[in-house]
Amino acid sequence: MFPPGSGREGAPETRAKPEIWTKRAEFDAANDALVKETAAFGEAARAGNADAMKTSWAKVAEACGGCHGGPTKSGGKFRFEE
Ligand code: HEC
After folding, report:
1. Which residues form the pocket of ligand 1, taking CB atoms under 6 Å from any ligand atom?
2. The CATH number of the domain where 35 resides is what?
3. DSSP string covering 3-18, please?
4. What is this structure's pTM?
């Protein structure tokens, strides 16, 4: 996801911030966190464990905040505000 050259120089309409490429390690860490929490949510769903799904979903939403302003905001660190 987001290889070099896919920023505004290659896609002027993107809402992805240049920080994705200048702060790559931080971005990758936020992405890894989302992948991990989403996988855990999938596990809970497959196990049919509603309580675990609730706990896990909160963590997924929190992981969105790693790049966006927070679970309820769409802007944030790695994406332009509207
Ligand atoms: C690793 C960083 C990262 C994480 C984590 C992340 N996003 Fe994003 N998201 C982005 C970036 C960057 C864009 C802008 C992409 C573009 O415009 O090319 C985006 C775009 C979006 C958009 C499209 C909005 C728009 O108008 O451009 C939505 C909706 C969205 N994200 C929701 C979420 C949700 C919900 C989660 C959690 C499940 C999440 N994101 C987690 C980086 C992330």
Report:
1. 14-16, 20, 27, 30-31, 34, 60, 63-64, 66-68, 74, 78-79
2. 1.20.120.10
3. -TT-STTT-TT--B-T
4. 0.83
